[in-house]
Specification:
Layout: H1 26-31, E1 37-42, E2 49-53, E3 59-63, E4 75-82, E5 96-104, E6 118-125, E7 140-147, E8 153-155, E9 161-167, E10 174-177, E11 182-189, E12 196-199, E13 207-214, E14 221-222, H2 224-227, E15 232-236, E16 242-248, E17 252-256, E18 259-266, E19 274-279, E20 283-290, E21 293-309, E22 313-321, E23 326-329, E24 335-336, E25 340-343, E26 346-350, E27 356-364, E28 370-373, E29 378-385, E30 392-395, E31 400-401, E32 406-408, E33 415-418
Parallel strand pairs: 1-4, 4-5, 5-6, 6-7, 7-9, 8-10, 9-11, 10-12, 11-13, 13-15, 14-16, 15-17, 16-18, 17-19, 18-20, 19-21, 20-21, 21-22, 21-23, 22-24, 22-25, 23-26, 24-27, 25-27, 27-29, 28-30, 29-31, 29-32, 30-33
Antiparallel strand pairs: 1-2, 2-3
C-alpha cells in the first residue's frame, strides 16, 4: 500500500496560540535561554524537574511551577512525559516532534495538542495513562503505538500512518479508526478482550495494507465491516473462537496456529494469485476460496473438513492435512504452473477440468479411495504412492507425462485406467 503522504519534518508557520496556551515574547524566551527548536523534553515520575535538552548538548532544568515556559518550544526531536504533574497545555504551541512518548500527564482538562502537525513516532504507554490526548491538526504521522494501558477503547487520530501497533492492553475491547485514512500496517498483539475494530462511521470502511493479529483476542467474526479490504491478513495464534472470516478483494491470507470455523475469501485484486496459507495447529471446518487464480499452501498438523475453490489457474497447490476425511473440491482448476501436491487426510479430490501441470502431481499418504484426472493433457510427473485406501486411478489416456511416474505401495490399487505408467503397480492386495 502506498500512502499519499511523505513523512518528514519541515518548517511550519508559527501556530496560532490557543486560549489555554501561555504565550511568551521572544525576549522572554531568549532571557530564559529556551529556543524554539530543541533536542528533547524529559520528565520522570520520581523527579520534580523538567529537563530540556537544546542543540549543542546544553540542558535546562525547570521546576513544574515554571512548566509554562515550554510554550516557547515549536519543534522538538524527542519528548518523553512520565508524570501526572505535567500539563499538556505547556506544549500546546508545539508543531513538530520526531518522537513523542507519553506515560502519564495531569488530568486538568487540557488533554490536547492543538498545534501539533507532524510526529514521526507517537507512543502511549503504561497503566497510569488515562487517555490519549487529542491532536486535531495532525497531518503527518509515521508510527502510532498504544501498549500496556488500561484503556477499554481507543480512537485513533484522523491521519494516514505507516504503522499502528496495539499491544498488550488487558482491558481493551474496541479500537476505532478515522474514516477515509489509510494505515499501511496494523499490528494487534495480546489484547485478550478486543472484539471490535471498526471505522467511526457505519458507512465507511477501514483502509489497511497489512493486518497482523497475534496472541489472544476475542473476535467472533472478522469481515468487511471491521477489516475493510486489506491487501494482506496474517493471523498467528490469535484466532481461537472466530466463527467466520469473510473477506473480499484481498491478495494474501496467512493463518497459523489458528482455529476458525468457516473461512470465505473472494475476489482477489488484479490478475495475481490469491495466496492462501494455513499452517501450524490450525483448524477450520470449511474453506471457500473464490478467485480467478490461486496459490494454496496447507501444511502439516492442520485439520480441515472441506476445501472448495473456484479458481481456474494456480501457481502451485500444496495440501497436507492431518484431519482424516477432508474433502477437496477444485471443479474449475485447469492449469497449475507448478506442483499439485496432496498429502495426508484427503478423502475426496475433485479435479474434472485439470489439463496442465507444469510440475509434478504427487498424491501421497492420503485417505483417497478414487483418483480421477480425466482431462489431463500434460504433467511433468505423476506419483501416487503410499495411499492405503486408494482403489482406482483414472487418468486421460492421451496425457503426456514427460518425467518418471510411479504408483507404489498402494495396497488396494488394482485398477489403473488411461495412462500407462512407466513404473508398474508395485503391490496389489486384491480381495
Amino acid at each position: 500500500m502506498k500512502l499519499s503522504h511523505v513523512f518528514f519534518i519541515t518548517a511550519f508557520a508559527a501556530p496560532t496560540a490557543f486560549a489555554d496556551s501561555p504565550v511568551f515574547s521572544n525576549e522572554t524566551c531568549e532571557a530564559e535561554k529556551i529556543p524554539q527548536v530543541i533536542t528533547g523534553v524529559y520528565t520522570e515520575s520520581d523527579d520534580d524537574k523538567i529537563t530540556i535538552s537544546v542543540p549543542g548538548g546544553r540542558q535546562i532544568k525547570l521546576g513544574f511551577e515554571n512548566g509554562d515556559l515550554l510554550s516557547c518550544i515549536r519543534i522538538a526531536t524527542t519528548i518523553s512525559i512520565n508524570t501526572e504533574e505535567f500539563s499538556l497545555s505547556w506544549l500546546n504551541n508545539l508543531s513538530s516532534a520526531t518522537s513523542l512518548t507519553i506515560r502519564d500527564f495531569k488530568d486538568d482538562g487540557t488533554n490536547h495538542l492543538n498545534n501539533l502537525i507532524s510526529v514521526t513516532e507517537a507512543r502511549f504507554l503504561g497503566k497510569d495513562l488515562h487517555q490519549i490526548p487529542s491532536m486535531p491538526n495532525l497531518k503527518h504521522l509515521q508510527s502510532f503505538t498504544v501498549a500496556n494501558t488500561s484503556f477499554t477503547d481507543v480512537a485513533l487520530p484522523r491521519v494516514n500512518s505507516r504503522t499502528v501497533d496495539i499491544i498488550s492492553n488487558s482491558l481493551l475491547n474496541k479500537v476505532q479508526f478515522a474514516a477515509g485514512f489509510a494505515i499501511e500496517t496494523l499490528r494487534l498483539k495480546d489484547n485478550p478482550l478486543l472484539n471490535d475494530i471498526s471505522p467511526r462511521f457505519s458507512w465507511s470502511r477501514n483502509n489497511f495494507g497489512t493486518v497482523m493479529i497475534s496472541g489472544p483476542h476475542s473476535f467472533t467474526n472478522l469481515d468487511q465491516s471491521q477489516l475493510g479490504s486489506p491487501e494482506r491478513l496474517i493471523i498467528d495464534n490469535g484466532g481461537s473462537g472466530i466463527n467466520n472470516l469473510v473477506l473480499e478483494s484481498i491478495e494474501s491470507v496467512s493463518l497459523d496456529n489458528t482455529s476458525i470455523a468457516n473461512i470465505s475469501i473472494s475476489n482477489p485484486r488484479g490478475s495475481d494469485d490469491l495466496r492462501f496459507s494455513f499452517s501450524g495447529d490450525a483448524v477450520a471446518e470449511e474453506i471457500n476460496l473464490d478467485a480467478t487464480s490461486l496459490r494454496l499452501s496447507i501444511f502439516s498438523d492442520t485439520r480441515i473438513g472441506k476445501i472448495i475453490t473456484t479458481a481456474a489457474t494456480s501457481s502451485g497447490i500444496f495440501i497436507s492435512n492431518s484431519e482424516s476425511g477432508a474433502q477437496i473440491s477444485m471443479p474449475n482448476i485447469e492449469t497449475i504452473h507448478g506442483d499439485l501436491s496432496i498429502y495426508q487426510g484427503a478423502e475426496t479430490l475433485i479435479l474434472p477440468k485439470l489439463k496442465l501441470v507444469t510440475g509434478d502431481i504427487k498424491i501421497t499418504n492420503t485417505d483417497l479411495v478414487n483418483v480421477e484426472i480425466p482431462s489431463l493433457e500434460y504433467a511433468n510427473a505423476l506419483k501416487v504412492n503410499y495411499n492405503d485406501s486408494i482403489k482406482s486411478l483414472k487418468v486421460n489416456a492421451e496425457a503426456k507425462i514427460s518425467g518418471d511416474s510411479s504408483a507404489s505401495f498402494n495396497p488396494l490399487l488394482c485398477e489403473i485406467e488411461g495412462y500407462r505408467f512407466a513404473i508398474a503397480v508395485a503391490t496389489c492386495e486384491s480381495e
